[in-house]
Design goal:
This protein has one domain. By secondary structure, it is mainly alpha-helical. The chain has 19 helices and two strands.
Length: 519
Amino acid sequence: MQKIIFKNIKNYFPDSKKQWKKYLKYSVPMIITSLFFSLNGFVDNFMVTHIDKGVDSLSYANGWTAIYGAFLSGVSVVGSVIVGQLLGAKEYDKVKMTIRIRVLVSVIFVIIFGGLALIIPENYIYFFAKGQISQKTLDQSVKYLRLIVISWFMLSWTTPISSVLSETGQAKYVLYSSIPSLVANVGLNSLLMYGLKMGVEGAAYASIGARFLGIFTDSYFFYKKIPEISITPWSLFKISKNAWKRFLKRFYAAFLTIGVLFLIISRSIMFNSAFPEGSIGQKDWNIGAAGIMGLASTITQTFLAVFYTVSSNVAIFVGKHLGRRNFQKAIKNASALKGFHTLIATFFSIILIIFAFLVPYARALASGVYEDITSRGFEPSYAIEAQNVYLNQLKWILLIIALWTPVWMWYVTSLTLIASGGKTNLSSFVDFSVSTFSFLWLVFVTYVIVPNTNLSLALMYLIFQSISIIEITIFEIVYLKADWAIHIDDIKRNPLSILKIVRFNRKNKYLSEQYNKDE
């Protein structure tokens, strides 16, 4: 019995030293790249901690940056599946057209989405603040939002091409590209906020400068390392009808993915509603969920960069084999990736736990709280008491996130694997359904449990995240039941229903045994 259990567990990890090295070879550059990318956001938030309501202001405004990022992720979900399999089949012209679609769709969306942000920025901020926000916070948020929209246009180019670099196994060059951007962001933030005293606007200008530099560095490696599938901005409209059909019939999955990420981002509305400014600790401390949750999100994104490796690893180690119809190899790698990703996530969780216990001693993270209270004539000891409460809540939220992270990594990998073959829409539909249920649970916690109890923000967050037990159960059942290992051209979809999937028999002439041999 023990041997059987050990064998089953062993199937969920790389089976040789060579395979471990291969996974790490592609994953480590992506993790470091994602770490640097996340550090850009952390730098902005950390640099404004000394500004009264600085973190809160960026939290409200960057909620919309996150929503645009959700759209880019949705496009990437569909694009990476297509790119992975087409690369495996070496159909480079089709890959180019898919990349053009990814960029073009992103640009069109940002023109509409960003344009509205410039016209009605106050409405954008109130969406997350739910009207419970000071005038100072609102003014700072609006100023930051109007500027940060510029960086969204840059992301519509850099995000797709850097994603393709990762999906083609060139992640180390994305890493090289991200280093100058991070250095520029730190330098510009220091100059504009501490030197020129520009406030939150300085953080926005620093981000714009870093993104602008990223256009040149990302483009250089894109053209240099994968010239066979490189595109130019003036060739964006060179897309065939079949390429659009291939992309759009899967775009349902993109919309569902966007919906999932939108629901996740919108959770901040519930937390802000349950704990508005002045509801944590003493009222005159002006502490609410926005600042604490915003900072917690920024910190965890930095530590949990491993999540960004999932789609690229699946495209490299699973998608390519599906494209060549090496189904057994794809399934074997799929199982190994689940354990590999979860183990790496556990490693980063341990680091986050250590960091969380150091948070109460990092008073710089709550310097804005201290400045706000003392500037209104209160004693320093009173301000220090407020800092203690702020940092203690932050510590516990980070610990909760760290403990759940390996679980999240396991089912995120499962969902990505389901999408890598013929069940992209099914994967997104299940994810959207579960996320909707999760959001409704948060609404119940916010408006029923919290008002009738003395729950702290951290305890509310713990109760909400208990839903993860149900989530992983549902995702694993779908993963085990769904026959996801399918070639991209071996299924026909009814565009009116994601559940009516008609697939070819694997024993037919399209799927001869020669493709199922391991490489």
